[in-house]
Design brief:
The complex is a heterodimer of chains A (107) and B (320). With 107 residues, chain A is mainly alpha-helical. Chain A has 4 helices and 4 strands. The N and C termini of chain A lie far apart (51 Å). Chain B folds into 3 domains: 107 residues, Orthogonal Bundle (Helix Hairpins); 78 residues, HSP40/DNAj peptide-binding domain (Sandwich); 90 residues, Urease metallochaperone UreE, N-terminal domain (HSP40/DNAj peptide-binding domain), CATH 2.60.260.20. In chain B, β4 and β5 form a beta hairpin. The chains are: A mainly alpha (107), B alpha+beta (320).
Chain lengths: 107, 320
């Protein structure tokens, strides 16, 4: 059977999503997303805008939030704290990888 | 159908109460949850743990599971003849179904085919897969074929696991950790519900020469001592093919020489940079002629690489 070649969508800062789209893709409700925005765990493009918009890579954070909420039965505050700490760990890991790449590896 | 020992997976006795089940699950979830764990095969282990917990925490599912009987983990088995009649109005073939698919459909003491739930439409499940590609594939873009297995109902309404092949174009510009989405290529929706999405997590294989930092690349450039002192031009590999790199005189160990826009392409436009990290390399074995030349240099040179030590040593001798 011939399998059709499928194009992919980027999840990065160039693509944008509305609150409704982010809720649909992540499994979180719009109210839960609003709470995570209020706690600073998910950052919209323009926090002051009437209609919130998000970078498409927020889907990764929001889907993680949905899994953590379900699997650990976390409330919004616990979830926001876990996400903030996870984001900080990811940033530090990325810095470590960058620094490690710059170190000479040959003796 | 392969048997799974849910009690064994959670490490609890068969007569464990709900609090013990919950406690065991939480302990294992902290250890293996793929979003927080660094354990090898964490995702696979967590799936087992979550599946066991989902079944055993629910009294109806647990009773139905217990009625299946006991087998060795991984052993092929069929539910007892009266089991399907008692618990299920879903038709399934025990040969190509996963235990988790079956228990996911239990409500009100009976398993239901999801497609028979009145007219309520249900979206298909999203799936996430890691896609391993080489640095060369990331540089040029590539195509990947993903062999997945997803639960679905066939035309006769039988629930079973079906192979699901997705061929995707990975555009140039991806790098390690990039996420991509393929809408509608996840699990099938029911009763007109939309299909789930497929999420790809790009993982770059380590390269023998280049180290990746975002879209920038780094590699070690070994130089002989005289090349570093006098300067030289050397042919160096890049993902796009070899280029000539000018090494300026007086280059020191650890110095980064930048080859602009020779790194990985960025999404849509632009490129990262390539950096050569200089290493001054000395020969392990020195021939007689080379030794004589080095000796001549040592005797004739005024260069003192530890000149800054002298001031420190003077300061120390003053204080003691």
């Amino acid at each position: 059977m011939k399998v059709e070649l499928t194009e992919v969508l980027w999840l990065d800062e160039q693509e944008q999503l509305s609150l409704t789209e982010l809720a649909g893709l992540s499994g979180l409700s719009e109210a839960e997303l609003h709470e995570l925005v209020d706690f600073g765990a998910i950052i919209p493009i323009d926090p002051g805008a009437e209609l919130l918009g998000f970078r498409a890579d927020c889907v990764v954070t929001a889907r993680t939030a949905c899994r953590l909420r379900t699997d650990f039965e976390l409330d919004a505050q616990g979830l926001a704290l876990a996400l903030t700490l996870l984001n900080r760990i990811h940033d530090l890991e990325a810095q470590l990888r960058d620094l490690s790449a710059q170190l000479p590896h040959r003796p | 159908m392969k048997y799974k020992d849910y009690y064994g997976i959670l490490g609890i006795e068969k007569n464990a109460g709900v609090p013990e089940i919950k406690k065991a699950y939480r302990k294992l979830a902290h250890k293996y949850h793929p979003d927080v764990s660094k354990e090898p095969n964490a995702e696979e282990k967590f799936k087992e743990v979550a599946e066991a917990y989902e079944t055993l925490k629910n009294p109806e599912k647990r009773a139905a599971y217990d009625q299946l009987g006991s087998y060795q983990p991984g052993q092929d088995f069929r539910p007892p003849p009266d089991w399907q009649k008692q618990y299920s109005d879903t038709h399934f073939s025990a040969d190509d179904i996963d235990l988790s698919d079956l228990f996911a459909g239990l409500r009100g003491g009976r398993f239901h085919a999801r497609q028979d739930h009145g007219k309520i439409s249900m979206p298909g499940e999203d799936y996430e897969v890691a896609v391993h590609i080489t640095l060369e594939e990331a540089f040029r873009g590539t195509e990947v074929e993903l062999d997945l297995s997803m639960p679905e109902f066939d035309e006769q309404g039988l629930l079973h696991r079906a192979p699901h092949v997705v061929k995707a174009r990975i555009p140039k510009g991806v790098t390690d950790g990039q996420r991509l989405r393929i809408p509608g290529k996840g699990g099938k929706g029911f009763n007109g519900g939309r299909n789930g999405d497929l999420y790809l997590n790009i993982v770059l294989h380590p390269h023998s020469l280049f180290r990746v930092s975002g879209h920038d690349l780094y590699f070690d450039l070994p130089l002989a001592p005289w090349e570093a002192v006098l300067g030289t031009s050397v042919d160096v590999p890049t993902p796009g093919g070899p280029v000539r790199l000018k090494v300026p005189p007086g280059t020191h160990a650890g110095q980064k020489l930048r080859l602009g826009k020779r790194g990985l392409p960025k999404p849509r436009a632009g490129e990262g940079d390539l950096f050569a990290i200089v290493q001054i390399t000395v020969p392990g074995v020195v021939g007689e002629r080379d030794r004589a030349l080095y000796q001549q240099l040592a005797e004739g040179s005024t260069f003192n690489p530890r000149g800054h030590f002298e001031q420190e040593l003077k300061n120390e001798s003053r204080t003691h």
